[in-house]
Each structure stands twice: as C-alpha cells, then as structure tokens.
Write a structure and sequence with these properties.
Elements: H1 2-73
C-alpha cells in the first residue's frame, strides 16, 4: 500500500511544480503584455500631443491674425509707432 502512496506523491509534487511553472509563465506573459500596452499608450500619447500642439499653434496664429486685422480696421496699427 505504501508503494502506491509513494508513487502518487511525486506525481502530486510534479503537478504542483507544473502549476508553478505555468503560473510563472502566465505572470511573465502578463508582464510582457502590460509592457507592450504601455509602449503603445506612450506612442499614442506622443502622437496626440504633437497633433494638439500643431492645432493649438494654428488656432493661435488665426486668432493673432484676426486680432491684428481687427486692430488695423480700427486704425490701431498706424498708432503703434
């Protein structure tokens, strides 16, 4: 009876070791996936920031032009000397 018992215990230990390895692999894969998602997120943020800067610069340029034109139509441009 004990011989069968000894044979079962290594199988149980082996199964636990397999689970640990699988858990470690799952954790490693999850970490790789998280790092990949962070890299993608950073790249998206970088591009969106560039777009935001370009659009903001264009809007400020248009606003400056409209203010300047408005000042010129009021005759303010000539008095700035």
């Amino acid at each position: 009876m004990q011989e069968g018992r000894f044979q079962m215990e290594p199988n149980v230990s082996h199964t636990q070791a397999d689970r640990r390895v699988n858990d470690e692999e799952d954790v490693a894969e999850a970490e790789r996936d998280a790092e990949h998602q962070r890299a993608i997120s950073n790249e998206v943020k970088k591009h969106l920031t560039q777009i935001l800067i370009e659009v903001t610069d264009q809007l400020f340029g248009e606003c400056r032009l409209q203010v300047w034109r408005g000042g010129m139509s009021l005759g303010l441009g000539a008095r700035q000397k």
